[in-house]
Structure formats: structure tokens, C-alpha cells
Amino acid sequence: MSDLITLLDLSPNSYLLLTNRDQISQQFIFDVLIQDLVKKDIQLLLILLSNNWTHYSTIAAKCGLNLKNLRDKQLIKVIDIISEEQFDYQKFVFKLNEELSHLSSNSVLLIDDLSLFFSLSLDFEVIYKLVHKLRVNCSQNNQFLVIGSHFPSEEDDEEVHRLVVSIAHKSDIWCEVNKTRTGFSPLISGSLKIHKRRDNCYKEMNYKLSERSVKLLPLGSHLL
Q1: Is residue 80 part of a domain?
Q2: Domain tally, the chain
Q3: Interstrand relation of 15-20 and 144-150 (parallel, antiparallel or unpaired)
Q4: Cα–Cα distance between 108 and 143 in angstroms, integer?
């Protein structure tokens, strides 16, 4: 897991965008990030649109972590949108601002799937302005912003595609998570394409998932 954290180069006052083509392949990165960061006693604010709190707690429990205890200790704060019966954007913004005001320096704000705001009847302009506001807030307070989003082709969903392209240009690090092109492979699960804009560099790696770990592999290599 630490190899993935190192590869993504997580540091305060930065903005990481995680995107995927199939809407589920990036999920393991959020599980890894949450578990790795809480082990380092880094405070998290999670905005959940793709999976609810129970999901993340269950996955962490398999790796020996009790997220409920960490939430009780205020190391983890949660806005669980997916579990709400009715979404009210104004109430969400009020709660978000309140939680942000209590976040410490060097903490992490994580949104698991920004694209799902469209399904809650928010339009491009509202979502884009929200991202900009969060980016500025995290930058001013020496915090790290992590945003995940489905990234469909322009033909499949023009609006979501346009949003991701727009916010990607503002990111410090853009990680594209893709499954294997041929479907299931016993050797690798997929690839990571990492664009580090501040260093003007690009790296691509394969990854292999197991129940409790992520193995990173150079392109063309396989696990023995």
C-alpha cells in the first residue's frame, strides 16, 4: 500500500484527481488512501457519493482497522450523501463549510465520485464552482484535496466528460485508473496513468489487486 501512496506523491496543499472509465476500478485507491492516511493519524473529511460509510468500514475491518473508533475520535469526519433520503444542496454546503472550518492543517478532504452530483440534479457550473472553492480552501489551509470521478468518453456522456477535462487542468496530480483492456487477467488487474503537472512528468504502472493489498508493477512485468 505504501508504494501506491509514494507513487501518488501525497503532500499538503495539493490537488489529486482520480478518474476511471468503468466507474468502479478506482474504488480500491480510496480504500487504500483512507487506510494508509488514518494509520499516519491524518485527519480525513469524507464526502461519500459512490459508496456509503458501511462499505468503507467493512473494507477497513478486513485489514484490521476500526474506522468507527477513529470517527468517534474525530480523526474521520463523514458527509454520507449516498445514505440520505433526499439531497438538499444548500444544507450540504452549510454542513460542508462547518466541517471544513474544523479541519486541521495537513488534513485530507476526499470526494469519492464527483460525477454523481449530476444525478442529484446539480449542473456543470455549480459543480465546477464547488471544486474551485474546495481547491482554494484546501490551498489556503495547507490541506490535501482528493477528488474521484467517473470519466466517460465524450460520446457516452458529454457533460461529465467536459467537467473532468475542465477540473483536470487545475489538478496537481491526475491519476487515470483503468482495468485491463481484455477483461479478466490472472496477472494484472489494470493500469495507473499518473500525470504530475507540477513536475511535468508522466508515469504508467500496472497494478494487481488482492483482498488486502495492491501490488504495483512496471509495464510489461507480471507477478510470479
Answers
A1: yes
A2: 1
A3: parallel
A4: 6
Q: Cβ(19)–Cβ(165) under 8 Å?
A: no
Neighbour order of strands in the sheet with 201-209: 76-80, 44-48, 108-111, 144-150, 15-20, 173-179, 190-196, 201-209, 214-218
pLDDT at 207: 82
Residue 24 lies in a domain: yes
In-domain check, residue 223: no
CATH number assigned to the domain comprising residue 32? 3.40.50.300
Which tens digit of pLDDT belongs to each residue from 124-157? 999 999 999 999 999 899 999 999 999 988 999 9
Name the residue range of residue 93's domain: 2-218
Q: Report d(CA 134, CA 65) in Å as an integer.
A: 28
Cβ contact 16:146 at 8 Å: yes
Amino acid (one-letter) located at 129? K
Per-residue model confidence as pLDDT tens digits over 149-181? 999 889 999 999 999 999 998 899 998 888 776
Q: What is the pLDDT of residues 35-87, one digit of tens each?
A: 888 888 889 999 999 999 998 999 889 888 999 999 999 999 999 999 998 99
Q: Is residue 160 part of a domain?
A: yes
Q: How far is CA 69 from the centre of its chain?
A: 22
Three-state SS string over 206-224 comes to EEEECCCCEEEEECCCCCC
Predicted model pTM: 0.88
Grid coordinates in use for 220? 510489461
Q: Is 150:19 a contact under the CB 8 Å cutoff? A: yes
